[in-house]
Amino acid sequence: MRSAVEIAAAVRSGERTARSVAEEHLATIASREGEIHAFNHVTADAALAQADAVDAKVARGEDPGPLAGVPVALKDNLCTRGVPTTCSSRILDGWLPPYNATVVERVTAAGGVAVGKTNLDEFAMGSSTENSAFGPTLNPLDLSRVPGGSSGGSAAAVAARFAPLSLGSDTGGSIRQPASFCGVVGVKPTYGVVSRYGLIAFASSLDQIGPFAATVNDAALLLDVISGHDRMDSTSIAASPTALLNDGTDVAGLRVGLVTELTDVEGIDPEVRAAVERAASALEAQGAIVERISVPSCIYGLSAYYLIAPAEASSNLARYDGVRYGLRVDGDDVYEMNSATRDAGFGAEVKRRIMLGTYALSAGFYDAYYAQAQRVRTLIIRDFAAAYERFDVLLSPTTPTTAFKFGAKTEDPFSMYLSDICTIASNLAGHPAMSIPFGLGSDAMPIGVQVLAPALGESVMFRVARAIEAAGGVA
Predict the structure, then answer these.
(1) Is 362 one of the annotated active-site residues of the chain?
(2) Is 339 exposed, middle or buried (0-12, 13-18, 19+ CB in 10 A)?
(3) How far, in Å, CA of 31 to CA of 33, rounded?
(4) Cα-to-chain-centroid distance, residue 437
(5) Is the domain of 211 the same as that of 325?
(6) Into how many domains does the chain fold?
């Protein structure tokens, strides 16, 4: 199956029609979706109509855009006009947004063909896509294992070749961790580089939208399309990386720091650690300068995150009250109706995080928990700033292990949360990071290597990612 870059070139040149590309991918979806459940909703008719519009532009001699005819899967927390957008929650079951998220508008304006809305952990709260109200997504590489989360459906869609590209959201690793588990590329951009307008919020100071792809170049193509300032998002920044697709591959002379707190932390599988070491050696062989670096406050990232993110979720999810839209369960008065609606509409993990966040924000505990977590966040930002004075990029595992079996961590939330121990710090700092598949474990499942960069450092991050990809898992 061709890459997204190749498909777009073939459609633009007339070698292939966008309709034939869409039909091919929809047939692949039909053949395996029943066993994988990557999607909550497949938009087959709309996809074919979008493909026909691309073909009509080509026939008129117009440029249909950089994503000409490329199928793209959309995480089901991105508002899509007239298409069910549920966040995999009963509380939004059947809700049809009246508008598109900015990233959805940009994908379709660039000639992309949206093929459906992908499954996720409810409201993006989870690391395995086992928390979806509509059932779990299975890892296409081994159906007994999880695809990661929360963007498990988006990662699985690319891994199963349902679409060459997909969009996910990353609050504490929800793009990079499933990318690692499914053996695809996943990118969390700098906070503010991609508009969050139309992304249904989990934790507003942490959420960021980014691409999944089979290759680094395909990820660069999609990030080029969706990045850029948006006046509809007050956190959108004016500066953004551009032309990542055409950026270089030379890493000679680049300074690469191997983060000891993330590579040597307890719980990192020896095979994962060895893969990161091989990636570092591969970069050295291509002329990079690799040294170990300490980012001391990283070890507190998990604790700080699980106070800040639930606190913001407690505020953001208060809007689901049974009054304006979504599920409504009647009660004797407004209070009873609100309580009954939320009890029926939210799953166990969402309730757990709302309660944790509400507690952290409550009178008498705010300074001890939420405010202290924000101080730790500041320390993490400072430590990363010091590291980037010495290094151009940092390197670490994406996840401590390869994809685990279904049910292995559901009874122990803390062990589930540890799946994100290597990814969370980048969200707290607002920096870009990405996962690149690099070899297999003894269980024949993919291992992901994470490249971290300073704010707006996507260009150098992608150069290093291409070098790792070129090494192919061996040094």
Answers:
(1) no
(2) middle
(3) 6
(4) 15
(5) no
(6) 3
- Residues 103-120 pLDDT 10s: 999 999 999 999 999 999
User: What residues contact 258, with CB distance under 8 A and at least 6 apart?
Assistant: 276, 277, 280, 290, 291, 292, 293, 394, 395, 396
CATH of the domain at 216: 3.90.1300.10
Q: Examine residue 383 and state whether it is found in any structural domain, yes or no.
A: yes
**75 labelled catalytic:** yes
Do 316 and 416 have their domain in common?
no
The answer to whether residues 329 and 218 belong to one domain is no
Apex 34 CA angle, 29 and 40, nearest 5 = 75
Active-site annotation holds for 117: no
Q: What is the mean pLDDT of residues 460-473?
A: 93
Helices (H), 391-457: 413-417, 424-429
Same domain, 385 and 361: no
Q: 51 is written with which tokens?
A: 């493909």
Quickly state the pLDDT bin for 473 (edges 50, 70, 90). low
C-beta atoms surrounding 348 within 10 Å: 11
Check whether residue 162 and residue 297 sit in a common domain. Answer: no
Which of these is catalytic: 88, 89, 128, 174?
174
Domain that holds residue 323: 303-367
Asked if the structure places residue 47 within a domain, the reply is: yes
Q: Which of 88, 150, 166, 396 is catalytic?
A: 150
355 and 271 inside one domain: no
Instruction: Let me know whether 287 and 307 are in one domain.
Output: no
Q: Indicate if 298 and 312 belong to the same structural domain.
A: no
**pLDDT tens figures, 309-331:** 999 999 999 999 999 888 999 99
Alpha-carbon gap, residue 339 to 331, rounded angstroms: 8
Class of residue 441 by CB neighbours under 10 A (exposed 0-12, middle 13-18, buried 19+): middle
Q: Which of 75, 117, 188, 409 is catalytic?
A: 75
